[in-house]
């Protein structure tokens, strides 16, 4: 979402932004299928409802103050002024098509980012607690972080030439490696730790109940991601085209990386591995999609597949129940993609090149610092929100509900009618 | 009358049905079953986590026959279902006191 208003002019840009925002909105129901297929048949509706729920509370939070905090004038060098455009009324009345759809585009990013977190809390989080969490998290975590990285374009606090990094090269985050994936990945880890492990974690199998759903979700995510990455050029221009191609290259290769890792380690190339590899690749190329050449995209994609395939096993060793691997896929590949800019950026943006493209080590260091800022803030802020909900309305359903199935208890429905 | 029940590999169902037809059996009830014997389960790997699946899918066939036909029918099922590998299943025969055909109300051998 780099440099929102500066680029978006002309009907071509507006047309592409209208399409891009629609594509990104599709990613959240796609995520519902991706996550829903991975969950168990007794909790698939709750899993899908967390994504759909995020579309409701996410857009409300964005319209009320999220947009102002994200895009408003910087207040005290920290966040956008929450009173900048309450209810987005002024923006809507501005007559500026690009500005209006950019605000809408931002809403779709806020929604998908918070929805990503839901994969860590499968089977056990109260639906009301989730809805409250999602609403508050968009306002207190997503909006400020997006302001730091993208708020005032290249003058964003955490952006290139911003006050925090001054004349140093970078940091760069074209479409949301830090803002979306590291941010959601860290929040997922914190929330999984606060909730605790599910009954039977590490002992009983929590098998995905519908792998075709997972593959359908991954396919729709890939499609929607073109709006996410290429749309973040805010124009139908060269950056958008480069982002589209790099997104496809890295994603295809990441799937190969994941499948190869599985084949060597487990003996089989799985469909869940293919779908997961696709998402890992999409995540990793998100921050770097306009910063690298094809070789860079191949390296980023392949290693994203390998790193995330290896990282998903960590939860069993370390004992946190990140149910559907938000940490292993989004945090790990988001971090890798963000750092990879420091290694293989080819200098397409501001001429800032990575270590292997003759740019020295500074860019890598700046990328790492930017990632660290987001990690620390997201962890602390998510912890506070999570604790506040835990000690008021409570985060977790009873053990009885968890065992018998959260769908029936929280939503009064079951996804599948057993044959009689 | 006898009830012949067979638990077999799902992929042998077509062969067994053909063999039953050749043996003159007019009807069979087929249902999905799950279980394990000496074969035990198998392992599945999801994102690197290995799960042992204890229950293996099987198919259950039930046939009601005259006493005299029971050995023939049993042999027909066994030879058609056999692959020689562990997990081929089992066939057993139990006596049946009475059978009634719902449509006509006939009882005993007439109802077969």
Could you explain how this protein is built, in words?
The complex is a heterodimer of chains A (420) and B (112). By secondary structure, chain A is mainly α. Chain A has a single domain (4-200, 208-411), classed as Ammonium transporter AmtB like domains (Ammonium transporter fold, Orthogonal Bundle), CATH 1.10.3430.10. Chain A contains 16 helices and two strands. Chain A has helices at residues 4-7, 10-38, 44-71, 89-92, 97-117, 127-150, 177-195, 211-229, 238-266, 271-285, 294-311, 314-318, 326-344, 362-390, 399-404, 406-411, and strands spanning 74-75, 79-80. A two-stranded antiparallel ribbon of chain A has the order 1-2. The longest helix of chain A is centred in the N-terminal third of the chain and has 29 residues, at 10-38. The model of chain A is unreliable at 1-6 (pLDDT under 50). Chain B has 112 residues and is of the alpha+beta class. Chain B has one domain (2-111): Alpha-Beta Plaits. Chain B is built from two helices and six strands. Chain B has helices at residues 13-22, 70-81; strands at 2-8, 29-35, 42-46, 49-53, 56-65, 89-95. In chain B, strands 2-5-1-6 form a four-stranded antiparallel β-sheet, covered by helices on one side. In chain B, a hairpin with a 2-residue loop joins strand 3 and strand 4 (49-53). In chain B, helix 1 (13-22) runs antiparallel to helix 2 (70-81). The longest helix of chain B is centred in the C-terminal third of the chain and has 12 residues, at 70-81. Chain B is elongated, with a radius of gyration of 17 Å. The A-B interface holds A 205, 207-208, 262, 265-268, 270, 272-273, 276, 309, 312-313, 316, 325, 328 and B 44-53.
